């Protein structure tokens, strides 16, 4: 990619104002990376937008001048999805952060893409409603990024991922045309579901400028418990038993021994340190149903050999226990100079096998890996504690990635359950998707963005 020319920069300043265009090397450094370890590249400039009209004008200019564009929210992504390319324009949406409307009659919320997930959740709660998706970075991740990456979260087992809550989108297409797709209707089968094409498209098909979200009634009650086990296999068997008992808790998370010790050292929660696996379990809904489910799950845990089952006495203790899982990445990140959080998903029935495989990979390549994740939906996060300055170790990390993703595919799983493909996993996508899917995705992208200006190099070349 060629460097961004001064004429384009001047025209960008005329669209958004000079104060909203960053070009200095020190300013650009902040926008040269996201949450993905060991990947960075400075853009040509960064443009802060405040309206759909500004985004449309920028994309018309980019289309005309064949200038690459990368959209960015808070930069919390973990697959390199918002890493710039040389000479590109970064469109930063953090100032488009309005909660435009909360419609209690239709259980919907209209928001701009720069609103954080936490702001969306808080706005719903203040109206007695509930927005379930809760990615680990929800305090700072933006809803536009959540939609672009189709983010998951701790409550995915019961409530699903971001796609399940997107009812409509305003999207600016690569040539600057503004598209609205979807509406407030619960049922709508008129034509292709175009909104679903943009959810999870990682900024390669258009720039999201408004999101219409589905809300649900706020659960009346919640119970939280932690169960510990001497073996990870026991924890996995408990998960299978809970599901087989036709109980779908809202949260069913696990931490391995390495992660437990790092979390306790970091957060001082009071976690037991003599176990190999910890399950965080939450049930929500009607008070009577929650009480019954919690009692059943406690009984299952004890019957299947739990070392300890600890039920939160109140909301404060529940929040403290839940923080054990939410702080896992931060806790692990303190241990080594470089922390690489990966994301692979297998059918629930194969999870114990996959966890054992990751343990074997750590031994095979002499690497330190802490594993945690969403045991209820088979999504695990092997987290590599390494140092990007150590060339040989990083080579072994990459080989370990390949083995882990190959095994996930072999077990009927996927290379990413919630983080996306981006730069980090695009070499693994063809093996997972196969020739027909790859051809279809390339053709869709070519039709919508024939100039190849939107997020070039992400997902596939």
Give a topology summary.
Blueprint: H1 6-16, E1 21-22, H2 25-29, E2 45-48, H3 52-65, E3 69-72, E4 89-92, E5 99-103, E6 108-111, H4 117-126, E7 129-130, H5 143-149, H6 156-159, E8 166-172, E9 178-182, H7 194-198, E10 207-214, E11 216-217, E12 221-229, H8 232-244, E13 251-256, H9 257-267, E14 277-285, H10 287-303, E15 308-311, H11 315-326, H12 328-333, E16 338-341, E17 344-345, H13 351-364, E18 368-374, E19 379-386, H14 391-410, H15 429-448
Parallel strand pairs: 2-4, 3-4
Antiparallel strand pairs: 1-2, 5-6, 6-10, 7-11, 8-9, 8-10, 12-14, 12-15, 13-14, 13-18, 16-19, 17-19, 18-19
Describe the structure concisely.
The chain has 461 residues and is α+β, with helices and mostly antiparallel strands. The chain is built from 15 helices and 19 strands.
Low-pLDDT residue spans = none
Helix content: 25-40%
Major sheet size, sense and barrel closure: 8 strands, antiparallel
Mean pLDDT: 95
Total domain count: 4
Rg measurement, Å: 22 Å
Shape: globular
CATH topology of the largest domain, by name, is Uridine Diphospho-n-acetylenolpyruvylglucosamine Reductase, domain 3
Strand content: 15-25%
